[in-house]
Amino acid sequence: MLEVGCRAPDFELLDQDGEVVRLSDHHGRQHVVLFFYPKDNTMVCTLEVCAFRDAHGALSDTGAVVLGISSDPVTSHRSFASRWKLPYRLLADTDGVVRQAYDIPRTFGLFPGRVTYVIDKEGTIRSAVNDPLRASRHVYEALRVLKGHRTS
Fold first, then answer.
1. Catalytic residue chosen out of the listed positions 13, 23, 32, 45
2. Tens of pLDDT along 109-143?
3. Cβ-contact 91, 66 below 8 angstroms
4. Is 45 among the catalytic positions?
């Protein structure tokens, strides 16, 4: 995983609506909660995306934007986001380039990992959580960090 204090690598991916999203578009404007999850429509991943959905207002109140990333294609993300009424963007890293740039470890050596980074407005990583089985921990940690580092 990338270390707290290092610069978050920029990326460009498509969201569930086929629109381009760049991390650098948020520099100087918003904190970013960037969570990597293994796969749409699986039990723990659904719990995680819904936990971020349910905390979306509190996360937004801190000045943060939430972005979820998996290797699923845009069409899968569109269906998944619609089904669970997700108010944030899901990004399609179909070739795994961004997952690799962020050094996301595999879970049990088999599955894509579950890692959440909190990135400040300057693009610096302020928190990194690697907890493959406790999806709600990712939301709680992001809120804790954002509330402690709240800046306008």
1. 45
2. 778 899 999 999 999 999 999 988 888 899 999 99
3. no
4. yes
DSSP state letter for 123: S
Residue 111: inside a domain: yes
Whether the full predicted model's pTM is greater than 0.85, yes or no, is yes
Query: Looking at the domain assignment, is residue 9 inside a domain?
Result: no
Residue labelled with tokens 């944030």: 88
Domain contains 53: yes
Which of 5-14, 38-47, 78-87 has the least mean pLDDT?
38-47
Q: Is residue 43 part of a domain?
A: yes
Backbone angles phi, psi at 151, to 5 degrees: -140, 150
Give the CATH number, domain containing residue 112. Answer: 3.40.30.10
Per the structure block, which two tokens stand in for 108?
């049990």
Q: Which residues contact 14 (CB under 8 A, 6 or more apart)?
A: 20, 21, 74, 91, 92
* CA dist 133 → 39, 48, 79, 114, 123 (Å): 13, 10, 24, 8, 27
pLDDT tens-digit profile of 40-62? 999 999 999 999 999 999 999 99
Residue 93 belongs to what domain range?
28-148
- Tokens 């979820």, residue? 68
